[in-house]
Every structure is written in C-alpha cells, then in structure tokens.
Amino acid sequence: MNTRPAARTSSGLLQGISEDGICVFRGVPYAAPPVGARRFAPPEPPAPWSGTRDAGHDGPIAPQPPSRLRAAMGEFTAPQSEDCLTLTITTPATDHQKRPVLLWLHGGAFWTGAGSLPWYSGASLSRHGNVVVVGVNYRLGALGFMSLSGVSSANLGLQDQLAALNWVSDEIAAFGGDPDNITVVGQSAGGLAILALLAQPAARSRFRRAILQSAAFRMVRTIDAAERVGQSVQDALGLPDTNGWGAVTSDQINIAQFAVAKASAAFAQIDPPFLPVIDNRLVSEDLIGAALEGAQNCDLLLGWNRDEAAAFFAPDPRIEQAGTEQLREVFGRFFGDRADQALDEYRLRVHAPSAGAVLTALLGDAAFAADAVAFAQRLHRAGRAAFVYRFDWSAHQHEFGACHCIEMPFMFDTLPAWQAPMLSGGDPEAMRRLAAQMRDAWIGFARSGDPSHPGLPSWPRHGEGLETMIFDTACRVVNDPSGRQRWSYWP
Fold first, then answer.
1. What is the DSSP letter of 273?
2. What is the pLDDT of residue 351?
3. Is the pLDDT of residue 374 over 90?
4. Are 270 and 367 in contact (CB under 8 A)?
5. How many percent of the chain have pLDDT more than 90?
6. What does the angle CA 199 – CA 203 – CA 204 come to, to the nearest 5 degrees?
C-alpha cells in the first residue's frame, strides 16, 4: 500500500499516512478557523488550498481545562488552539467501496475532550470491520457553548458538529465511505448532541443510524440561565462590558470559566457550567420529544454504565460522609415531598447502603440511566424499538466500578492507549475479549442496523420485557436489569 495515501476533497488534495495497513488522515479542516473576527461566529466552510495538504499530523484540540474525570480516566495532553475545527479519519482504503461510516462526537461535559485523542482511534474498527471512522474536534466551554448578548450566540459547538456532519456527508466518498450509510456515535455530552441532531430534519437526513452512549438527556439550559453564566465569565475576566472580548486570550478565558465553575459547584451536583441552550432553533424546549420524532426513521442503539456517577464522586470524601439531612436535600431535588420514600427505596436497592453508594446510584440514574430506559420504552411504544445495553464490567472491587466513560476503551478496542485508573486490576485477556465483542457489535450496527454477531448472545430489540444486553466478562441478555418494573422510583 502507498505509505502516503491521498484523498481529494472539494477544498483540495489531502495526503495522509498509513499506520499498520490503515489509512489515517489527521487535522482535516471541515470549517474555517474560528479565530479573530470568527471567534464567536458560526462555522464557515474551509478555504480551498492549492497543491497537496499534509494530513499526517493531528490538529490542535479546542482550548480547555483539565478533565474533571481524570482521576478515573487518566490524563491526556495535546496542543490547544482556537484553530481546532478538524477531523481525524481512518479508513482501510481511499477507493470507491462505499464502506459504512461512523462519526464520533466525544464527551467531556462540553468543555473538555477531543475526537483526535488516541483513546478514540478508529483504527481497530476500520481494520476489523472495513468501516470508515471520523472523529470530530469542536469548540468547547465558553468558546463553544456560552450565550452572552453582544458577544456570542448560543450553541456554536453544536453548529460545529452539524458542519462536520455535513462535510462528512459531502466528502466521505473520497475516503472510501458511503455517504448514504452514516452512523453518528456520541458519548455523554456527545450523546446529548446526537439528540439535537435527531431533532433537526436537515441534520437527521444526513445519517441513517445513531448510537447514544451514556447520553445526558436533560442537561440543557434556558437562554436566561446561560446569559447569567456568560455574564459571570465576563466578570471573572474583569471586563466592564462586552467590548474587551476580542483582546482576551483563550488561556484567560480558560482560567475565568474554571473560576466560574468552581464558584457555582454544589454538593452532589454534576452539571457542568456550559451546556446546550434552548434557543428553539438547534435545541427546543421539548428536545427529547423532537428527538423521538426524528428517531422514527433512524436505527438506534443506546445504553449506559451500571455505576455512572462513581467517576464523578469517588475522589470526594464529602459524598461518603454525607449525613441524613444532606441525603434528603439531594433526594428532594428530584422527588420533592416523596424524598424520604425514594431514599428508603434506594437504600434497599444498593448492595452496601452507605451514603456514597446511595448518592452514586441516585445521581447515575438521574443523569443517565432513567432517561435512557424511558427513551427506549417510548421508542418501543412508537413502533421503532432500539437495541439497549448496560455496561457492567469493572475491575474487581474497584472504587470506580462500571463508571462513566469506562466503556469507551472497549468500544473502540483501544485498551493499550489508556492509562486509566478505572481499568487497573482488570484481567487483560478478559478485557481484550470484551473489547472485541463490543467493537464488533458497533461495527455490525453501523453496517446493517443490527449489533448481533457470532461472538455475542442473540441481542433482541428492547420491548415489553425491557430486554438489555449486559456487557461484562460474560455477556448476556437480561430483562429489566435496573428493576424498572420492580421499583417505584428511578430508573
């Protein structure tokens, strides 16, 4: 194979690299750099170039603070720049085979992460499944999700993602991909972004299938609430009005937004400072209802991890040491005057009814599991049943359990790229076997809309029995694993 594969896009010729027989194109621009006068502007098409553009190196990632989940996931480092609107593309060949395409939208609470990280390399998926994988870098934090009158309109990061989807739909044939068979895949914040894509007719016409991993279904803000956050960042920057935003650096914005996040942090609260905003254009007040309508013509696979919230709270001793009144206050946020009954039920549900275990179970359900199950049930009743999973694997007696993000090294089959505390102590052979099972399920779904394959038990769609694939050392299908039909409260 040519050691420097090439692909011609409408903007010009790209030259990638070959890595172990897979063609990789890095730093591929899907929009113009959002710098200078474009800092807070919607994405614009990339400028064409003459000659050959080197696509052998990653572009910078969006400016961001350290991840709040680094205690579980480990650290990553990469050059940062506002010139970050690029793609990473892996493909078996730049021919005309029309392979299935997976478009990856990373998580990170809308203010950390990048689709170009080695954690999310599409090489194993491309090699084992003959598919094309595209990772997206998009604007984050205040630069991507701040709403502040006179400075930034809402949801620029969502607009970036839509621009990336449109670019892939228009250009992916040059990389051996099939523009009529695109699967959008998103985890956490990326899963919520996919709900927004499903809700938009123009966007959902560009893809055939969707995978939502630990999607944060309800983490959206009103315009008024978002404006208050934006004003707080402006105040933290020491700006008397909106005129100084063009002169502040991205590093200064990072420091200011981190200060705002720290000042607004509340006990047992996982909502980040920047979220998609209800603008009634990209995000409607009934986002879930609009996404359900969009999913009627889309194959869907979704799921969550058994111990989602453990990654957020395992390093925090206040959670384990919470008293009864603190527990009641947290339960009251969700259940009002039924808080005591819900608390009693959760104490029965967890294996070790400590304050930490009870809060972790509640907040994992509230942020991820309960809405995933409800969404799948509503799809079933509408006649468009989804495939549903729960990821249960964890290292033996590990403090993080099957926490938020732990499924990704398995789904991408990139275990060697992760130096993650949440994986420590696991049996390497069992982990490799589970990674192959999950990887091949995602490949099968992208290819045909069905994740079943010979390496897994038969995987039925989610119906009246709440059939759910459990990914663990021994994968199996379980009816209603969360006890939806047993418990009065979530999930």
1. S
2. 79
3. yes
4. yes
5. 91
6. 65
As a whole number, the mean pLDDT across the chain is: 95
C-alpha separations of 160 from 44, 87, 206 in Å:
9, 11, 15
CA dihedral (358, 362, 364, 367) in degrees, to 10, reads -160
Residue 389 has pLDDT above 90, yes or no: yes
> Catalytic one among 106, 380, 398, 404?
404
Distance CA(91)–CA(103), nearest Å, equals 12
Inform me whether the pLDDT recorded for 397 exceeds 80. Answer: no
Where does the pLDDT of residue 1 fall: very low under 50, low under 70, confident under 90, or very high at 90 and above? very low
Catalytic residue among 82, 171, 308, 345: 308
Domains in the chain and their CATH numbers? 1-491 (3.40.50.1820)
20-51 pLDDT, tens digit per residue, is: 999 999 999 999 999 999 999 999 999 999 99
Whether 464 is a known active-site residue: answer no
Question: Under DSSP, is residue 9 helix (H, G, I), strand (E, B) or coil?
Answer: strand
Amino acid at 425: G
Task: Tell me which amino acid residue 360 is.
Answer: T
Q: Tell me the C-alpha distance between 260 and 283, whole Å.
A: 24
Please say if 44 is a catalytic residue. no
Known catalytic membership, residue 188: yes
Residue 351 exposed, middle or buried by CB count within 10 Å (0-12, 13-18, 19+): exposed
Q: Name the catalytic one among 124, 152, 188, 232.
A: 188
Q: Which residue has the tokens 């609107």?
A: 85
pLDDT of 265 reads 84
DSSP string, 453-473: -TTS-------TT-EEEEESS
Q: What are 191's two structure tokens?
A: 């899963």
